[in-house]
Task: inverse folding
């Protein structure tokens, strides 16, 4: 079996960081520092036309100067420079790009025109894009942290795919103190090109991924999403939060990632039919991550509650009944023990 | 207007603590220490027949030895001693008692018989009882902390009335670090005698109480509860958690406080009709306490969300729509500002 066509995105052998910088707390500084500190095992090239060195590494003015094959471009330069960079990357054989830069479709008419230009450049050279306007991606097992998150992620078997960078940051913060690890963290941003369906398709066949969590505002290609979701849910637990449930929420999502949001009840019926668990709150998503990462899968629906307080025990019993769980009847031997 | 008949319970001038002790971490030690440290301004008498002094204060062998009027008895002695103590209190004119001791109706047939004996003694002398099997009561504004909670409560205007001592402890812990204060904290335990209706009736006319939070497993006197609830909700915000919503939860409540639980949808309809807010989780109860204690009351139903993350903003907008709130349209002047 040949490699998946998104392999250069998720498992690149060489990465160029456009906009890599020494300017403290700039996005380009944090992204390049993350790549250095996460121990990426492939070749790593900072690109900055104004500086011969970035964070102690030899920097390049342009992709042409590198003289080696680059598989993935990570871009954190001003928006108006991005279409040109993508064109240049195409000429030099780059196959995938993570565009962290914001200021495209979500930023009015001028931004939308720039996004069209960007997409045309990518299509011309068959470059696949994550973003723009995203936190970036992480693949802890190969030391890839192409994000501007402050802090990395532990290696684990959960894939988290999110249309909100803020939620990536929140779940990554929480995961550190809760000892939860990830196979992949993908902040999709506007998902102008690569959408949920294609990412799911990759994660289904990714041996490092045991379960999939998603935060969704809107789906561009519903058909490919549903078909990938069906395939994924058949072999791995899939848990998602879908927002924009109401008109007001949809409007907020529109101004956030310019996502069009369909009828919520249709979405709800479709995902429950393919066996995906939809949760409503971040706490539920965190709890799901914790439950999935512990590796324990319950058998059956009977539950025992251990508590030192009567009231909390009654509340937990109520909640279990809400969810259709049955209280276990402990045997005499268990009680004795 | 004369004083409310529960005034000796909620605002006693003199308190005797039966079972007050020097034995570290015994219930009687903690209760008496709490009374000393909370700065109770009335007369305070430790009662312990085995010791002439408790925690540096002269102790009494019996209520008869005090020779002064005692308004409230706080009892933390073994269960089999309690009916006799209540009888003795009655003879010496005590009008109210908080019975912290467990081991009555919730503890099988022998406990139930003891509880019957206890109630008969109380009725004979017209003593009103909180408990048994409770954490106790607090009235921070008069320095009354007749509980075995570790730590006190700040003075504030929230009354919290709970059938679960564990939830009292939880909300008191949380309140300390969240700077939330209380007018009253009442752990009802089995509510063998004084039930929710009578406590509500007192709190309605209590000038220190601005709002009322309740944790309910079951109501003994539904008629007096509903009538007090209607009166309370008309003039103060009332927020409650009612558990035992399902058969399984009811069974758990039965073994906890021996409460009989009625049909949940009837309860739900009744409380919403009188204008009481019913919440489902402890987090919602905490949030309500925080919102009520800040003293700010929103006018109207329009909401603005301030966030530095698009995703959380969309989720909050969705949730607001769930609750029937409308997103505010900010004026140009507000946006400018």
Result:
């Amino acid at each position: 079996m040949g490699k998946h066509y998104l392999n250069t995105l998720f498992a690149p052998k060489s990465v160029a960081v456009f906009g890599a910088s020494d300017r403290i707390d700039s996005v380009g500084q944090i992204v390049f520092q993350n790549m250095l500190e996460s121990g990426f095992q492939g070749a790593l090239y900072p690109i900055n036309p104004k500086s011969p060195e970035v964070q102690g590494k030899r920097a390049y003015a342009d992709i042409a100067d590198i003289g080696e094959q680059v598989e993935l471009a990570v871009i954190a330069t001003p928006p108006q420079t991005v279409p040109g960079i993508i064109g240049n990357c195409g000429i030099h054989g780059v196959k995938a790009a993570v565009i962290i830069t914001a200021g495209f479709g979500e930023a009015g008419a001028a931004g939308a025109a720039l996004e069209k230009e960007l997409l045309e450049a990518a299509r011309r050279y068959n470059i696949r894009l994550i973003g723009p306007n995203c936190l970036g991606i992480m693949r802890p097992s190969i030391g890839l942290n192409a994000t501007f998150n402050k802090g990395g992620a532990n290696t684990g078997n959960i894939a988290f795919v999110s249309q909100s960078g803020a939620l990536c940051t929140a779940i990554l913060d929480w995961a550190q103190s809760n000892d939860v690890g990830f196979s992949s963290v993908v902040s999709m941003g506007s998902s102008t090109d690569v959408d949920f369906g294609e990412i799911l398709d990759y994660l289904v066949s990714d041996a490092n991924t045991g379960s999939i969590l998603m935060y969704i505002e809107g789906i561009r290609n519903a058909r490919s999403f549903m078909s990938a979701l069906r395939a994924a849910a058949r072999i791995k637990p899939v848990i998602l939060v879908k927002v924009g449930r109401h008109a007001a929420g949809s409007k907020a999502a529109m101004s956030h990632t310019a996502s069009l949001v369909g009828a919520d009840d249709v979405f709800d019926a479709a995902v429950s039919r393919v066996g995906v668990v939809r949760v409503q709150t971040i706490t539920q998503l965190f709890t799901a991550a914790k439950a999935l990462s512990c590796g324990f899968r319950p058998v059956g629906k009977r539950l025992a509650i251990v508590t030192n307080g009567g009231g909390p025990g009654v509340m937990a019993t109520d909640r279990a009944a809400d969810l259709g769980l049955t209280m276990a009847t402990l045997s005499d031997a268990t009680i004795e023990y």
Observations:
- The CA atoms of residues 104 and 301 of chain B lie 48 Å apart.
- Chain B has a mean pLDDT of 91.
- The longest helix of chain B spans residues 108-124.
